[in-house]
Amino acid sequence: MLQTSLTISGDLTPLPAFTPPPSPTLAPDFTVTYKNIDSCKGNAFVRFTVVNTGSAGFRSAYIKVTNLKNNEVTQQAVNAFDLTVGCVVAQNIAPLGIGQTGYLQSDVFQKSSPKGQKMQAVFQLCTEQNLKGSCVTQTLQFVAK
């Protein structure tokens, strides 16, 4: 192992003080796309794919979906980004790590199937459970197919 020693002499006051740069701030961000319509026990819901494109993980999300034709609104908050197929959780994803793909879905639509309808979804993803920490919000309009 190499050892070095340093001896400093003289007046050090004219030397500038070194201030280290601040630590990088984590910047949460994501992209979201409409995936499909699915159903559970005859109730229709819409599913979305979410990709964590930021530099912080996500631990919770809020999703609000509005059918722009009949104004039916569904909303829910979750602490996971699970892939479901019908009524079954096919893949548990919690938390949603940096660069990872996860899934969000609306609550069920009670009035009618959203198929063929123009929809709007608002997503809020947060770095802590129960919609706490740093949160990012995005809106997506799509036609449910």
- The Rg value, from CA coordinates, equals 23 Å
Q: How many strand units?
A: 9
Q: What is the first-to-last residue Cα distance?
A: 66 Å
Question: Strand order, biggest sheet?
Answer: 4-3-8-9
Outline the low-pLDDT stretches.
none
Strand content: over 45%
Topology order in helix (H) and strand (E) letters: EEEEEEEEE
> Which whole number gives the mean pLDDT?
92
Main beta-sheet annotation: 4 strands, antiparallel
Helix percent band = under 10%
* Count of helical stretches: 0
Structural class label: mainly beta
Overall, the morphology is elongated
Give the tags.
145 residues, mainly beta
Commentary on this structure:
This protein is mostly beta strands and 145 residues long. The chain contains no helices and 9 strands. The strands form 3 sheets. A 4-stranded antiparallel β-sheet has the order 4-3-8-9, with no helix packed on it. Strands 1-2-7 form a 3-stranded antiparallel β-sheet, with no helix packed on it. A hairpin with a 3-residue loop joins strand 8 and strand 9. It is elongated and about 85 Å long.
